[in-house]
Design goal:
With about 1000 residues, the chain is α/β, with parallel strands linked by helices. The protein contains 34 helices and 35 strands. The protein starts with a strand and ends in a 7-residue tail after the last helix. Its EC number is 2.3.1.165. It comes from Trichoderma gamsii. InterPro entries: Ac_transferase_dom_sf, Acyl_transferase_dom, Acyl_Trfase/lysoPLipase, Ketoacyl_synth_AS, Ketoacyl_synth_N, KR_dom, NAD(P)-bd_dom_sf, PKS_Beta-ketoAc_synthase_dom.
Length: about 1000
């Protein structure tokens, strides 16, 4: 997101994030009940006019079945709905349809700050005075159109009707955008309606010349763009800017003011950041003109440039509105949110969940679904995505249908069978009313862990093939082996346990522990648990003492009392967790004895003897859904790396983006590598499997591990004038914190506006800026700039260049000497300093050729990281009796990889000695403005972040700070932040480093590119 404040005289604020349109719904003339139908209607050039209802009107446009409002669906009484304006009915229907189109479960927004702005321009009721009744007041009130939506869907954000005549809808859009930008609402429902039941208004507007030949209603759903991308929404377009005004006094209140409309358009364009200040030089503007499109015309698209459109409206009372809409280049990932039972553990069979308020509505609902699924669009959709939309993005009502299918044809067959109230041979279908009502606890589930008797010989073979089951019982194998003398894994695999009484007790308990983990992994969780006999062990969470378990083993079983206690607490759904049901009959009898019938309760088995476990669990999930139990979500974003799907229009390459942190990582626990938490390979493989649908993957290479971001804890910082203070000194990001941000991402900047910033705070959005400071009521951002143009290494006279190198940077020093060749004619002396005499031999042969060109070469063995190094260096130079020192090249450093948590004080000392101590010694020996140039070799690593470089990054940051200090005092100093130099420097084997840099959009450079000439440094 690009968000900035331009502090010029006009105080233009730009917020280019925009507002995303994520859902749409409409009802227009021509029987267009969806945006898709309307678009095809327009492309086909069809006419939506109908038969005349009045001789005074030449053509009439109708929306059909306005009276067929489903009052029971919205829990509105028949008496009340009779008094409701059709606008209110249409508003409820369109809002619900738009939310479903946005893949938003309306019930998930209950109690939220969702806003509702609806444009309305007619009043139809309160005309028949004798029939006025109490409900007629709110039923006919214009504000009721928006208020009813907020009331019946239980939204608590802004809710109001807009009446700006023909500009009403666009003004509503403007208000919705503002509500989101001002953080009043996270979601906004905006739109407009026009339902005319009598010709009076039509005739009046027609005589005034202000009649539009079409009408109806439309609603769109708005979200902040970043939120929509993060949520994986299907973004249809982006609203970049909007504006609303009044055109003032014209030659008539209903006459447009062209100047006012132009001004409003310019304001909307300015907010959107769209302008014509810089014209495109490739366009012949002298001959170009505007074109009114009468035919279906291809809208050509420039490379990497989204299409943009302007929408304007004028209300006949003088309201002017304008909006800029921009194309969103990309699409959303279809396997977004799923029910856990449809997780990747089962690649073929899919559970479908459908619900309606009453049984009589089911046939129509499933018939519509069957028709769509058998259409070309339905056949093209991913079946699991379709099922997940029904399960997680639709509101669930009291009468429910569940079925399992393994393909489009099977799913269509099941839907058609349900519509005809028939069985689908070979397919699982179940339907019925929920237990109790939506608000009571009856639908909560109790797990019953049964005891001895559920075992059967081959129960372990399939269970051990289930990864979740195996992982759950693996840690118990060694314990049982030690305490009981047998392997639970081997015994379950062989089935040789029926004669071992004690072994069966242990195996039954272990199997139930594994089964419970499998159920929870598929989204099935209990609200209460009951243990029967020895298998109370499997359901317990708290460790118990010896006396407790002894009494548990020899004491009586109080299963009936436990079931009655659960029933007293309102529980009505019981699931036996075992490999075969043995206590369900007792539970059932206990509940029947209480006077409950089968419609008031449910007793269900996890699986049965000789039954496929995955099939049994899926059918259990279906039955629990029918009884009203909540299905836990399985979010694909928590298990794969795929987020927003973006298509590069220039290459057609598909890219997926995702934001990762410790809170959103797609795997449990930690997977550290050298102290850094990384994404494990299994997550990549699952990602590739889910996005491609491939059964086999080949040629999968892992070059660079991806580390996690952070949850960005807050650090409190107080700014007073030039002073910055941190409430906790240890958490100050300015004190050695830069590398912590890179390796651990534990800190990031944010601001709290001071009173003098209050006037600007509403217009500034810096939520996505990584680091910023408010200073003198201005926002200062850290940015990279081009190389300073006034840097020069030209020598003022013949003199000496001092080059300092410490192992393993000696090869770099030799390359520096080569790069200094152009100075040889101007240089009387080159002094190479090093702390190790043996290392100098590799350099001497490469620079001796300079002596033939007139430059003397001197080598000094001197460790200038020592406290008295500056004095010793100056003394050595005096002894050599060389010409005055004119320039310094500091190219020292060492390489050592370690994570921040593993970096010791000694490690920091080793890093800082050659780079920082050496630089400070050279700085002391040659203070600012005493040389022609002072060059230090730094690195880009602390800017882009590389793994295991905490000490190295800290030392390079010190060089950067020293360069800034000397330049502020007029010195020609520069710290060159190099990327990797191919075949040179401290990391001569750079294949891994190159891969890591490329992952950040950076490449290495050649020696020629790094050291073309010192004068260009």
């Amino acid at each position: 997101m690009k968000t900035f404040l331009e502090t010029n005289d006009s105080q233009v604020f730009e917020m280019s994030e925009g507002i995303a349109i994520v859902g749409m719904a409409c009802r227009t003339a021509g029987s267009n009940t969806s945006p898709e139908k309307l678009w095809q209607f327009l492309l086909a050039k069809q006419d939506g006019s109908g038969e005349r209802i009045s001789n005074a009107i030449s053509r009439d446009y109708f929306i059909h079945n306005v009276e067929d409002f489903d009052a029971a669906f919205f829990s509105i009484s028949p008496k009340e709905v009779e008094q409701m304006d059709p606008h209110q009915r249409l508003g409820l229907e369109l809002s619900w349809d738009a939310l479903e189109d946005a893949v938003l479960n309306p019930k998930s927004l209950v109690g939220s700050n969702t806003a509702d702005f609806i444009g309305v321009d007619s009043r139809l009721l309160l005309k028949d005075l004798p029939s006025i009744e109490p409900w007629r007041g709110i039923g006919s009130a214009p504000q009721g159109v928006a208020n009813r939506v907020s009331y019946h869907l239980d939204f608590m954000g802004p809710s109001t009707v807009v009446d700006a005549a023909c500009a009403s809808s666009l003004v509503a859009v403007h208000l919705g955008c503002r509500a989101i930008q001002n953080l009043q609402s996270d979601v906004a429902i905006v739109g407009g309606e026009n339902v005319l039941l009598a010709p009076a208004i039509t005739l009046m507007l027609g005589k005034a010349g202000a009649l539009h030949p079409e009408g109806g209603g439309a609603v769109i759903i708005l979200k902040r763009l970043s939120r929509a991308i993060a949520d994986g929404d299907n973004i249809k377009a982006i609203l970049k800017g909007s504006a609303v005004a009044q055109d003032g006094k014209t030659n008539g209140i209903m006459a447009p003011n062209s100047k006012a409309q132009e001004l409003e358009a310019r304001q909307a364009l300015a907010q959107a950041g769209t302008h014509l200040q810089t014209l495109n030089s490739r366009v012949n503007w002298a001959e170009a003109g505007l074109k009114v499109v009468h035919e279906t015309t291809e809208w050509t698209e420039e490379k990497n440039q989204p299409r943009r459109a302007a929408v304007c409206s004028y209300g006949y009372g003088g309201t002017v509105s304008h909006a800029i809409v921009e194309q969103f280049i990309g699409s959303y990932f279809e396997i977004a949110t799923a029910i856990a039972v449809n997780s990747p553990l089962d690649a073929t069979r899919v559970l479908f969940l459908v619900s309606v308020p009453q049984e009589k509505r089911l046939a129509k609902q499933v018939r519509v679904l069957a028709e769509w699924l058998s259409s070309p669009a339905g056949k093209a959709v991913i079946l699991k995505a379709f099922a997940n939309t029904l399960a997680q993005c639709r509101a669930h009502h009291d009468y429910r249908l569940a079925f399992i299918a393994d393909g489009h044809e099977a799913a269509t067959t099941c839907l058609q069978a349900a519509a005809e109230d028939k069985a689908a041979i070979g397919h699982y279908i179940s339907k019925g009313n929920i237990v109790g009502v939506s608000s009571d606890p009856a639908r909560r589930t109790v797990w019953v862990f049964s005891g001895h008797g559920a075992q059967w010989r081959h129960m372990g073979k399939e269970l051990l093939l289930n990864t979740v089951f195996r992982q759950a019982i693996d840690p118990l194998n060694a314990i049982v082996q030690s305490e009981a003398g047998f392997s639970i894994l081997d015994t379950l695999a062989s089935g040789d346990f029926l004669e071992l009484s004690e072994g069966i007790q242990i195996l039954t308990c272990v199997v139930q522990i594994g089964l419970s983990r499998v159920l929870m992994s598929r989204g099935l969780v209990p609200e209460a648990v009951i243990g029967h006999s020895a298998d109370r062990n499997a359901r317990t969470k708290r460790p118990r003492g010896v006396e407790y378990w002894a009494n548990n083993t020899i004491g009586p079983v109080f299963l009936k009392s436990a079931v009655n206690a659960a029933a007293d607490d309102g529980y009505r759904v019981f699931v036996e967790v075992s490999t075969h049901p043995i206590v369900l009959f007792s539970v059932n009898e206990t509940l029947l004895d209480r006077g409950l019938d089968y419609g008031d309760m449910a007793t269900l088995a996890t699986t049965k003897q000789n039954t496929c476990l995955d099939a049994a669990i899926m059918e259990l999930a279906a039955e629990l859904y029918i009884k009203g139990a909540d299905m836990e979500k399985y979010d694909a974003k928590e298990h794969i790396l795929v987020g927003q799907r973006i298509i590069d229009p220039s290459t057609n390459v598909v890219r997926y983006t995702a934001r990762l942190s410790t809170a959103t990582k797609p795997f449990p626990g930690k997977h550290p590598l050298d102290g850094t938490d990384i994404i494990p390979a299994a997550v990549y493989l699952n990602t590739f499997h889910q996005t491609t649908g491939a059964l086999l993957l080949s040629n999968v290479n892992f070059d660079v591990p991806v580390s996690l971001g952070s949850d960005e804890p807050i650090v409190s910082v107080v700014v007073k004038g030039e002073q910055i203070s941190v409430l906790s000194a240890a958490s100050s990001p300015e004190v050695g914190g830069r590398e912590i941000w890179v390796n651990h991402s534990s800190c990031s900047w944010s601001t709290i506006a001071t009173p003098e910033m209050a006037a600007q705070s509403k217009a500034i959005d810096v939520s996505m800026v990584q680091k910023h400071i408010v200073h003198n009521s201005k926002i200062e951002l850290q940015r990279l700039h081009a190389v300073l143009s006034d840097l020069s290494a030209a020598l003022s006279e013949k003199g000496t260049i001092v080059v300092y190198a410490a192992p393993p940077a000696i090869p770099t020093a030799a390359q520096v000497a080569d790069a200094a060749e152009e100075f040889v004619c101007e240089t009387a002396s080159i002094s190479i300093l090093a702390a190790d005499e043996a290392k100098l031999e590799a350099v001497i042969s490469r620079v001796q050729t300079f002596e033939a060109q007139g430059a003397a070469l001197h080598t000094l063995v001197l460790d200038i990281s020592l406290p008295d190094a500056a004095e010793r260096l100056l003394k050595a130079i005096r002894v050599l009796n060389v010409p005055p020192v004119l320039g310094v090249i500091h190219a020292a450093g060492i390489l050592e990889v370690s994570s921040l948590v593993e970096t010791t004080r000694d490690s920091f000392a080793r890093f800082l000695a050659p780079k920082v101590n050496g630089a400070l010694a050279l700085h002391k020996a040659f203070p600012p403005r005493s040389l022609d140039f002072f060059i230090m070799y730094s690195s880009i690593r602390q800017l882009v972040g590389t793994v295991g470089q905490a000490s190295y990054g800290s030392s390079n940051a010190s060089l950067n700070a020293l360069a800034t200090y000397r330049r502020a005092r007029g010195d020609n100093t520069v710290a060159i932040q190099f990327t990797a130099v191919r075949g040179l420097g401290m990391a001569t084997s750079t294949s891994f480093l190159m891969t890591e840099l490329r992952s950040k959009g950076i490449t290495d450079i050649t020696a020629g590119e790094a050291f073309p000439r010192l004068g260009a440094s």
